[in-house]
Amino acid sequence: MRLTHPDPAPRQLDDVLPTRKLVLIGVVTLLIFGVGVLWSWWIWARGGEGDSAMGPGRIPRGLGRPEIGLVFQQTFDQLPGGQALREQAEHQLRTYGWVDRKKELVHVPIGVAIDRYLEARPQ
Questions:
Q1: Mean pLDDT of the chain
Q2: Which of 19, 66, 84, 93 is most buried, taking the most CB atoms under 10 A from its CB?
Q3: Alpha-carbon distances of 92 from 44, 77, 83, 99, 116, rounded to whole Å
Q4: Segment 83-104, tens digit of pLDDT
C-alpha cells in the first residue's frame, strides 16, 4: 500500500456569496414583518372588541392597596415621609453643621459654597 502526500498548496475555493438565497431570505423576512404589522394594526383598529367571550375581566383583589406582595403600588409622591425627607435635605443644604467633628470637617450652606468657589476660581 502506497501513501500519497497531500498537495502542498491546496486550491482555495472562490469567495462566492449565495446572493439569490440571501435576497430571497430578506424578501420573505420583510413580507412576514409586513403581515405582522398589518395584523397588529387591524387588532388595534378594532379596539379589542370581542377579545373575551365572557366580557371584561374581573377587577383583581387588592387593587388599590398600597402594597401587594413585595410590590409597592404607590407613586413616590404618595409615600409617607417623602416630604419630610425633602425638607430635611433642603435644611441640610441651607445650614452649617458638622460632617465629622473629630476631623473638624463641616458642611456649609450651598449658596455660601458656590460663592466661595466662584471667588476662588481663576478668571
A1: 83
A2: 93
A3: 51, 21, 14, 11, 18
A4: 888 888 899 889 999 989 999 8
Q: Which residue has the cell 456649609?
A: 108
- pLDDT digits over 52-86, tens only? 666 667 777 777 777 777 777 777 666 677 788 88
The type of residue at 87 is E
Task: At 7, list the grid cell.
Answer: 498537495
- pTM for the model stands at 0.34
- Measured CA to CA in angstroms, residue 58 lies from 54, 63, 72, 104 at distances of 10, 11, 21, 62
CB atoms within 10 A of CB 87: 10
User: How many residues are given for the chain?
Assistant: 123
Integer angstrom CA distances of residue 97 from 18, 84, 100: 74, 19, 9
